[in-house]
């Protein structure tokens, strides 16, 4: 039995890292890399996956990322999934096993292995929903639009208002002159 694992939120400048693992207990049609699916299709597939699969989803906050680093957060999340789901094999999308001997990895697995596609969708939808939810608490940043990625509009909001508690302070922004020095303080 294969458990596919994938993440969402490795690169954004705000919000959590979300890692999901999934075992398909019955076939689900139209699974693919979450980035290749429309939001509507991801939501439909998310409901099917959560109703018919064995899965586990892990959130690591921006504070976790700042204190431990993104790689350590990924490793901890993968190990939590491996301890929570009984499977014969674990396969992660990407090019590294993060030093975990029993974890296999494959580039583009999220587009070619159904279990990893399912994990990709679980992670992406969970993270997007979270970002939309917190946008109510941080209306100045429009998280519901860019989901925490470093868009021009998002960077301009940080320039104007500083970072919120949901931002990653360890991620430096060239556009703000941070590559050599200080990070802006949080206003919220």
From TrEMBL:
Gene3D superfamilies in alphabetical order: Ribonuclease H-like superfamily/Ribonuclease H
Superkingdom of source: Bacteria
Binding-site list for a divalent metal cation: 6-7, 93
Keyword Nuclease in record: yes
Protein keywords: Cytoplasm, Endonuclease, Hydrolase, Manganese, Metal-binding, Nuclease
Gene Ontology process terms (BP): DNA replication, removal of RNA primer; mismatch repair
CDD domains: RNase_HII_bacteria_HII_like (cd07182)
Cofactor(s) in the UniProt record: Mn(2+); Mg(2+)
Enzyme Commission number(s) from the entry: 3.1.26.4
Keyword check for Manganese: yes
Gene Ontology cellular-component terms listed: cytoplasm; ribonuclease H2 complex
Reaction(s) the record says it catalyses: Endonucleolytic cleavage to 5'-phosphomonoester
InterPro entries given in the database record: RNase_HII, RNase_HII/HIII, RNase_HII/HIII_dom, RNaseH-like_sf, RNaseH_sf
Domain RNase H type-2: 1-183
Pfam family for this entry, one: RNase_HII
Co-factor binding comment: Manganese or magnesium. Binds 1 divalent metal ion per monomer in the absence of substrate. May bind a second metal ion after substrate binding.
Gene Ontology terms, MF aspect: manganese ion binding; RNA binding; RNA-DNA hybrid ribonuclease activity
Subcellular location: Cytoplasm
Similarity comment text for this entry: Belongs to the RNase HII family.
HAMAP family linked to this entry: RNase_HII_B
Annotated function: Endonuclease that specifically degrades the RNA of RNA-DNA hybrids.
Protein name, entry field: Ribonuclease HII
Native source organism of the sequence: Malaciobacter molluscorum LMG 25693
